[in-house]
Amino acid sequence: MNVDAKRTIAQDMAHHVHPQSNLRQHAENGPTMITHGEGVYVYDDQGNQIMDGFSGLGCMSLGYHNERLANAAVRQMNTLPFAPTFYNRSHPRVAELCERLTKLAPGDMTRALIQCSGSEANDTAIKLLWYTNTAKGTPERRKIIGRIRGYHGNTVATASLSGQPHMHAKFGLPLPEFKHTDLPNYYRFHIDGESEEEFSARMAKNFEDLILTEGPDTVAAFFAEPAISGGGALMPPKGYWDEMQAVIRKYNLTFLVDEVVTGFGRTGNRWGSETWNLKPDMVTCAKALSAAFFPVSALMFGEDFYADMMKNSDEMGTFGHGYTYAGHPVGAAVSLEALSIYDEIDLVGHVRKVSKPFLEKCYAMQDHPLVAEVRGVGLFCGFELMKDAKTREPFDPSWKVGELVQNFAHDRGLYLRAIGDRMSFMPPLIISEDEIEIATERFKGALDDAWAVVKGRV
């Protein structure tokens, strides 16, 4: 390690607070310092090449080098590096982006609020639900339902909405307005002999029971990812969305679909809503919106929703919401260029093509002694690790089997993410078939390495 590398690591350990990290471990071991990237690979300060099997954080759709996106940012910086969207001011790029997104969006979307992150977009949606319900004369409809292990962000409200215990503990969360229904993990939670369709019906019944317990007149909305990312790339079981959407409509809940991870091709369609035939009232997107080259997100909704916002704005004299960098010209310019690239290279078509060998090689790993179940779609796949696949006996949590696999994969040059004893595998959308071969070989090798450690305990 050279002097500069040692210095930056020392700086990081002394001053940088790392989100979603083990702080004690970081204080003792320091960071993996990534210095540059190219295509589906990143490189650390030791010169190691690491294939990105998690797309950064599910966002690096076009990989780590794209001159068109970089040039779009430079052109915009040289033309108009910043312009606020407060006080009825605007700029051409944000106007163009809002029109383009609403035309692409699932459902009947006509309006867009451009924000800076998926957390901000979802947090804004919560505020606007409360805001518009006051305009409707139903301010008591404040409760928002998410799902156990669902993930929607890290603000106070979105962390409350997310069903992630480690994001609630010690923070005094969730806030009382936020409730959670079941995690639809068929493998782990089905009753013996219960079909996927029967399991899905039971999940919907539990959802309806929660609404009735809380009082339908107090519940405003249901928030959900088409497939759960933060819970470990968990695919919905058969019939799940038909059953859940029937309950949503029965009680006239607003249905917000969080497309932050699943938007722009991850599932083999432009939107996860298309993959599972969802009918959203509101949609959020981020991550691949700019191919992760700039922090940007969007919340989209229809004209009826906007009319209620107008009503409150008329009464108060203004719409009292906004962020300084929302609708940033550079973010809008980069996003427009990313959307153009997606169309020009037919990124969705590419995902459909390479998803076949990707999923075939993933499903082949279900025979591994550590793996109980593999489910995926497009370039989005989850692996359930289990001590006994037939009896569904989990590993002792203290063994940290998922973390073992994750670390061995890193040693072999593949970045994966462990969420407990689930593995999430979602490479950049531009990955080639040859690169899929390399990635899956490294994944299989990491499973073998972990099994060598674990098998003596089983």
Shape call: globular
Beta-strand segment tally: 15
How much beta, percentage-wise?
Answer: 15-25%
Major sheet: size, sense and barrel closure?
Answer: 7 strands, mixed
Give your account of this protein's structure.
The chain is an alpha/beta fold and 458 residues long. Helices cover 43% and strands 15% of the residues. It has 17 helices and 15 strands. Strands 4-10-9-8-7-5-6 form a 7-stranded mixed β-sheet, sandwiched between helices. Helix 4 packs antiparallel against helix 14 and helix 16 packs across helix 17. The longest helix is centred in the C-terminal third of the chain and has 22 residues. The radius of gyration is 22 Å and the shape is globular. The two termini are 39 Å apart. The model has no long low-confidence stretch (mean pLDDT 96).
Describe the secondary structure blueprint for this structure.
Elements (H helix, E strand, L loop, with lengths): L2 H13 L7 H7 L4 E5 L2 E4 L4 E4 L2 H4 L8 H13 L12 H13 L6 E5 L2 H19 L6 E5 L8 H6 L3 H4 L9 E4 L4 H4 L6 H19 L4 E6 L15 H11 L3 E5 L13 H4 L6 E4 L11 E5 L1 H14 L12 H16 L2 H18 L6 E7 L2 E6 L15 H11 L2 E2 L1 E3 L2 E4 L7 H22 L4
Helix pairs in contact: 4-14, 5-14, 6-13, 10-11, 15-17, 16-17
